[in-house]
Amino acid sequence: MITRMAKIELVGPKDDLMAALDLLHSRGIFQFEPQLPTESVAGVDRPHMLVLDQEGLRERLFFEKLRERIIALLNLLPDVAVPALPLQPLPVMDLLDELVDGHLAEARRLDGQARTLRHEEEQLARTLLFWNTLEPLWAELPSEANLELIGVTILHANQLPLLEAALHRRLAGRCQLSSTQAADGTLVGLIACDREMAGPLRAALTSEQVPEMPLPPGFAELPATRRVAALRARMDSCRSDRLAAENTLAELSRSWRNIYQQAREWLDERLELYAATVAIYATRQCFILHGWLAESETIGLRQALSEAFAGRVVLAELDILEDELERVPVQLANPAYFAPFEIFSRLLPLPRYTSYDPTPFIGIFFPVFFGLMLGDIGYGAVLFAIAAPMARCGRGVAGDLGKVFGIAALYAMIFGIFFGELFGDLGRRWLQLHPLWLERSAAMLPTMLLALTVGSAHILFGLLLGAWSELRRHRGREALLRLALLLTVLLLVLVALGRIFPAPWLATGPLLTGVAILLPVLIIAGGLLAPLELLKTLGNVISYVRIMAIGISSVLLAVVANQLGGAVGNLLIGILIAGILHAFNLLLGVFAPSVHALRLHYVEFFSKFLDLGGRRFEPFGKPRPTPQERRR
Amino acid sequence: MEKVWIAFAAALAVGLPAIATAWAQSRIGAAGAGTIAEKPELTGTIIILVAIPETMVILGFVVAAMILLL
């Protein structure tokens, strides 16, 4: 349902402006209207848009800059668990302004230091892994002082013999290559050669695209036997320095994060109040707030204003003028049964205030169409068993889908009883289940007529709603077009009915005469394109044949699953095959009816009466959490 | 022989719209995948849009059923 809105004007002395805004912010029920209504503009002291004075402007800039720095600091401080402290932020804002720069600089220094050390630690860990792996290799080498050791990473195992051949060719066998596998699976190699051959060796590695494992500065000069120990010592030193920096930062966070967090929340609210001033009008002595709120909230707000300002701030409820109807914000509020169906109406743009909320229509017709299409006791029961636990998930997407499909599954079971279907024809074969109404697989024409009847009723109802909607908006010509369309479609449906079930009161002649009389009315009301609109509406009715088509394809697939399962000859394998096919059919049987039932609403039904493009109700501020909620 | 022609007509009535639906859905599906990549909140709308051309094959199925049954 679309909530009824009230147009509100609040007037009070300028001194009470911030307090009034604060009250509106905390209640979160009022939406500002930046345009002042014309009747408010009359008088000698004409209201003008409120502009902040020098002092207000300075305060706003101060708060904005402080907020920026506090956010930067909060982003650096780690989240540590500290009990909440009661704090009145306003008196300490000046103090925080003085402290925040120092804290920010300190936090940046500590954070930068910790990042650098962590990066170095990661590099050292990689280098250490590499040289640890090579340690056994250089133990086999002769202990000559003039030996250069170069570590390389070999990308593929088949690269190793190629590298050996290339080194032998370029250095005439004056080097030795040994290889092994590191703990992380990488293939690493150690090349030993005379120091004077190191240059040509590196050139050869570059041309062969073999990456050399670089050593951090200061370690390359060390003898190979001392490198690993030196790397380990440096890594330990890095770790202890990093932990010290992180601990200092955590200590800073423990002392100050809570205070800055509360200050930031207060600043957010304060700046939101300043932002709202663009929609405030004022005379020399008074402020004027103009906007919207739900009609049901008016009494509560009037009472709250009376208690807070002792009659100084007055609330007046104004009449909504006809040309303002387009600007009235829209809020949807539905009873518990319909609320989960909002998941489907949210796929559409918001309806206009003068139109209808599509949710109740989806809530009523979607399960019926779904049930007509799926129409199987077994599938309905399985779907209900899946949907019921989902429905307990509350008001999230899963919870809403669970509730919607739980209801749809119930309808599928009810129609399943009418059609006598339990996993296709299994109920008939095993349990002697007989249809109470129609056997869809054997009665295609009656099923098609049923679908067309449902479609006609749905479309005629849509046209009736459309005519009523146009009448409410005082658009007589459009209302006449809808009514003429409605009557013409009704007469044509009766003509078709008379052909199938001949009856004296369904004589074709008088009915077609009625259509002939209505055609000029259609053209007068809707112009030359009105007959086209009539054809489109008839096409919309025929589109409901999909209810029959999807339903029959579902039941035939189920029959095929049973027949294939039965044809195997082995009970267990037969049950398995039939089970898999039924699961597949159920998946299709949930997806296709959902999509097509929604399409019948969006394309065929809603186009007859729904006026989309409404403005969302976005109230100023929101209720502040209580201290208990904060702790939770 | 007449039965063969009836079956052939029914096959054409459902087969040709099926090809047309497949072609239309391939175009809408490709565009829809791009849309969802940029705006995941439009997933529901895209599913509905992909289902719209199915009208052709459903009506084709109905015509085929009428050819076979009437």
Which range best describes the helical content of chain A: under 10%, 10-25%, 25-40%, 40-55%, 55-70% or over 70%?
A: 55-70%
**Percent strand of chain B:** under 5%
Arithmetic mean pLDDT of chain A:
85
What is the fold-level CATH name, i.e. the topology of chain B?
F1FO ATP Synthase
Question: What structural category do the secondary elements of chain B indicate?
Answer: mainly alpha
Order of helices and strands of chain B: HHH
Number of helices of chain A: 19
How many structural units, i.e. domains of chain B? Answer: 1
Question: How many extended strands of chain B?
Answer: 0
Commentary on this structure:
The complex is a heterodimer of chains A (632) and B (70). By secondary structure, chain A is α+β, with helices and mostly antiparallel strands. Chain A has three domains: 5-58 and 272-330, Alpha-Beta Plaits, CATH 3.30.70; 59-271, no CATH class; 339-615, no CATH class. Helices cover 61% and strands 9% of the residues of chain A. Chain A has 19 helices and eleven strands. Chain A has helices at 17-27, 54-76, 89-139, 159-171, 198-207, 224-276, 298-309, 342-345, 358-374, 377-391, 397-419, 426-431, 444-472, 476-500, 508-526, 530-543, 546-567, 571-605, 627-631, and strands at 5-13, 31-32, 48-49, 147-154, 175-181, 187-194, 280-282, 286-294, 314-318, 329-330, 615-616. In chain A, a hairpin with a 3-residue loop joins strand 7 (280-282) and strand 8 (286-294). Chain A starts with a strand and ends with a helix. Residues 624-632 of chain A have low confidence and may be disordered. Chain B is an all-alpha fold and 70 residues long. Chain B has a single domain (2-69), classed as Up-down Bundle (F1FO ATP Synthase). Helices cover 89% and strands 0% of the residues of chain B. Chain B contains three helices and no strands. In chain B, helix 1 runs antiparallel to helix 2 (43-51) and helix 1 runs antiparallel to helix 3 (54-69). The longest helix of chain B is centred in the first third of the chain and has 37 residues, at 2-38. The A-B interface holds A 344, 346-347, 444-445, 448, 542-543, 545-546, 548-550, 552-553, 595-596, 598-599, 602-603 and B 44-45, 47-48, 51-52, 54-55, 58-59, 61-62, 65, 69-70.
